[in-house]
Amino acid sequence: MDETSAPASKLIVTRFITSFLPEILPATQSATTELTHITTVLNTLFTKMYGLHINAEVIFEAFESLAYCISVIEPRKPSMGSKPYIETNSHAIFLNVAPIAMHDMEILAAYQQNDDQSLSMESGELLLKLELFDYR
């Protein structure tokens, strides 16, 4: 597993977001756009495709630096133990990303190349773009 520094991880995630996860207006709140869910999907993809581990804080900071609309559902909790505030509250933070783009990422995160399942042409093209994405 590649140990990438937090600033480098944020830069990689920021570039990934601008390439693959467009913002959508008006803002929506759904399970697909929840920070916990986005973190799980993107971490699965980043681990599988690039050997990188990313966390909720890095993802949140990347979306924040791109000025994506972010909404937080109350009540917020203080940090729990050693977990940072963002991770503690990630289930209640929604990022204004296009749900269809997240759906595509979910499909690719679940896809195993050695399985007999096949991808749609659109998903196959997106997988190729993800493979060609220069994360370094």
Keywords:
two-stranded antiparallel sheet; mainly alpha; 136 residues; 2 strands
Short structural description:
With 136 residues, the protein is mainly alpha-helical. Helix content is 51%, strand content 4%.
Largest pleated sheet: 2 strands, antiparallel
Uncertain parts: none
- Kindly report how far apart the N and C termini lie: 14 Å
Strand proportion: under 5%
- Summarize model confidence as the mean pLDDT: 81
The total tally of domains equals: 1
The total of beta strands comes to: 2
- The secondary-structure element order is HHHEHEHH
- Rg result: 15 Å
Structural class: mainly alpha
Helix content: 40-55%
Q: Count the DSSP helices.
A: 6
Strand order of the largest sheet: 1-2
Shape: globular
What does this entry look like structurally?
With 136 residues, this protein is mostly helical. It has one domain. It is built from 6 helices and 2 strands, in the order αααβαβαα. The protein has a two-stranded antiparallel ribbon. The chain is globular. 26% of the residues are buried.
